[in-house]
Design goal:
Elements: H1 7-13, E1 19-20, H2 21-28, H3 36-48, H4 51-72, E2 78-82, H5 92-99, E3 104-109, H6 112-116, H7 118-121, E4 129-134, H8 140-147, E5 158-162, H9 171-183, E6 190-196, H10 207-217, E7 218-219, H11 227-232, E8 238-239, E9 245-246, E10 262-268
Parallel strand pairs: 1-7, 2-3, 2-5, 3-4, 5-6
Antiparallel strand pairs: 6-10, 8-10, 9-10
Helix pairs in contact: 2-3, 3-10, 4-5
């Protein structure tokens, strides 16, 4: 295991005067790692677009179903979780190692508040491995180089990109990041993705003014995309059933889950 960054490093970069996505998201799902400024911005965004709290919960539940499916039904034993977010209950390593204790998980994030809590993510089973990389999604080469210290990139890897490419505002750049990461992993690997949308059929129009407010009052800036744009991030891969759908509906246990304007998909590299 590579040496984990220290909480002091994260503290030095932490700005508690501006709302930050990792902390606001944590606030929306009922966590405690947030500040008053995060409550204020989070509450205002939720007043403009009440579905945002449902999106946060649905995204988290999608992660649980996707990891359980890949570790359980598909036998995946390696996960590269890019855009980790703050630790909560049932993180990727906890789900995967509960199914297969030998699973190896590498988390990647560059949020200072996540860095402070990184050591919580580095606890796992004695025969599995968890690691944390302090790196930016826009630097896939560094991510892959450092991930290779823990993961065997000649064997299948599930690449998790949940709610992360929406912070890469240029669509071509976001597409290239996904392509670059998936080019480095072998056949039988998976890309697991969620991404907010402005598509009307998922009720996404209301996100546009809420995101404008967010971008003027919080960090980092975010963008929604159409289903067609999001699907292009999966070019060259084979989407598993049910395809690109509201993340709340992907292999959902409920017959009629709340539809949220956040697409989710799992695709395999042929």
């Amino acid at each position: 295991m590579s040496e984990a960054p220290t909480p002091a490093e994260g503290s030095a970069r932490l700005n508690t005067g501006v709302a930050h996505n990792a902390r606001v998201w944590n606030y929306w799902i009922g966590g405690k790692d947030n500040y008053e400024v995060d409550h204020q911005v989070g509450d205002h965004v939720a007043s403009m677009f009440p579905l945002v709290r449902d999106i946060a919960r649905a995204d988290r539940e999608f992660l649980g179903r996707a990891v359980s499916f890949l570790a359980g039904e598909r036998g995946v034993r390696q996960f590269l979780d890019i855009g980790t977010g703050l630790p909560t209950a049932d993180n990727t390593h906890e789900i995967a190692q509960r199914i297969a204790s030998e699973s190896r998980i590498v988390y990647v994030d560059n949020d200072p508040i996540v860095l402070i809590h990184a050591r919580t993510l580095l606890t796992g089973t004695s025969d599995g491995v968890t690691d944390y990389i302090d790196a930016d999604v826009r630097d896939p080469d560094t991510i892959l180089d450092r991930a290779a210290r823990t993961l065997d990139l000649t064997r299948p890897v599930a690449v998790m990109m949940l709610g992360i490419l929406n912070f890469v505002l240029d669509t071509d750049e976001a597409r290239e990041i996904a392509r670059r990461v998936m080019a480095a992993v072998p056949s039988g690997s998976y890309l697991v993705m969620t991404h907010p949308t402005h598509d009307a059929e998922l009720g996404g129009e209301g996100q546009i003014p809420a995101m404008k407010f967010w971008n003027e009052n919080a960090t980092p800036p975010v963008t929604a995309r159409s289903g067609a744009e999001i699907a292009s991030f999966l070019d060259g891969l084979e989407m598993l059933e049910p395809g690109l759908v509201s993340c709340s509906a992907w292999r959902a246990e409920l017959q009629a889950p709340v539809v949220v304007p956040q697409y989710g998909a799992v695709a395999v590299k042929p």
